[in-house]
TrEMBL record:
Gene3D superfamilies for this protein: Creatinase/methionine aminopeptidase superfamily, Creatinase/prolidase N-terminal domain
Pfam families: Creatinase_N (PF01321), Peptidase_M24 (PF00557)
Keyword Membrane tagged: yes
Transmembrane annotation, as ranges: 42-62
Residue ranges of domain Peptidase M24 in the record: 243-455
Keywords: Membrane, Transmembrane, Transmembrane helix
Segments forming domain Creatinase N-terminal: 103-234
Protein name per the record: Probable Xaa-Pro aminopeptidase P
SUPFAM superfamilies documented for this protein: Creatinase/aminopeptidase (SSF55920), Creatinase/prolidase N-terminal domain (SSF53092)
Amino acid sequence: MHTTDRPLRAPGADIEAKPLLGAFLDRPTAPAPRAALANRSWLLRALTVTGLLVVAAAITFITTSDTTASLGTSIEECAWAALEEHVSLLDVPPIPRSEFLARQQRLAAALKAEGVDAFIAEPSASTAYYANVSAAFDLSERPFLVILDSRAEFSYLVPSFEAGRIAALDMVYDTKAVIQWDETQSPYAVLKDKTKLGRVMVDEHARFMIAAGLGGAGIEVVPMSATVQKLRAVKQESEIAILRGINRFTRQLVRALRPCIRVGMTQEEVTQAAKALFTRAGVGEGFWAIILFGDQAAFPHGGKHGKTLQHGEFVLIDIGSSLHSYGSDVTRTVLPPSATVSKELLDMWHTVHAAQSAGFELMHPNQTCSDIDAASRKPVEAAGLGPYYTHRLGHGLGLEMHEHPYLNGANKEKLSIGEVATNEPGIYVTTEQASEIGWKTGFGIRLEDPILVTKDGGEPLTGRRALSPYDP
Ligand SMILES: *[C@@H]1O[C@H](CO)[C@@H](O)[C@H](O)[C@H]1NC(C)=O
Ligand SMILES: *[C@@H]1O[C@H](CO)[C@@H](O)[C@H](O)[C@H]1NC(C)=O
């Protein structure tokens, strides 16, 4: 799952000194030098006492002055020691120019087959895919349109005064034509006049004003077809390599983080450490995280700030980042090494795991998305918890964090080899609802792996699914 980033809380806002001090005190202290122990002089004893006071004062100073920084740093350092060896997973080349040109050819063939003259898009995941025009380009009220026609020719429509700025983008094309409009003209009329386009397919993310403008200029507009949608949903080898790299790394990050989490820590401290780890590995840009303890995890997209981890609670970690603009999206519900939960709660974890397995077993070519979603609900329904599995099984993952194909109850689309979709069942019971199932406290459990559809079935792009809360 993924949602827009919540702003991180300011450091130092809500850390209790107690658990930190506990952490210091739990550490084995260095053995005192024998000579000092043997010496009984009052002077030395006084000096020792003074020394202890200085140490105590120093600890107090550290714990009260900069608790978040020191504790956040200690989680980060603890996890980095285990994560560092996995940074090489990120050594994957970006999409080569030849692949962009091949995409333009595949699109042209599809347009031709559908009797459409051209595909038109605003800066979006589609332009990033076909022409390396980033989805991050700011849209304005003045249209900047990327046009790929059924002969695989590339052109763009641009306001004259912006032509220089746009020409400087790292667009990929074989040959290009630039169509400029100035402020005395209708951009759509200029486009019609210069290109003679009769029938165009408009990208699903283009704004309605674009479709309306084209229509108003006498160009027939058709919506994006399922065939064209599939072109980007089906991943090529270079994309799969990137998705594998970033998703495997993301799982390793969760694995490295887990043993460093302690009772008493706040959700925000763990979030900060996760972000610092991605940044240290060089992929902090696209970072986002949902880290929830205990009953806070009953809200799939996050609960309140400042919650500290208690004994008997799960830690839900849903995080991702991006590599060469391709996303990672991984969720694990874990327990730190010495922590435990009730048997009932542990059984619940295994019910979610069974739901994930049931979906996974069907993530084969030609299986229908709604059937896969339905299969994943069976184990949860058998446990009497059907109503608490509140969202779809998953979503496609690529240049967008959520894209086609969607694994939900209404989608009759069939999976194809090369498609990637998350498999992320969950059970969510809020503390308010807990009495409905005879419990006192709420909880939330989710497990998520992006799965590549291959001819032999599903491949978890994380490298491996979770085995237990202690082995994510
Ligand atoms: C695509 O754009 C990025 C960012 O501007 C650039 O680094 C990369 O070299 C471009 N790719 C190609 C194949 O030109
Ligand atoms: C999927 O279905 C299509 C059309 O029915 C068929 O041609 C293809 O062989 C099937 N693929 C697999 C892997 O079963």
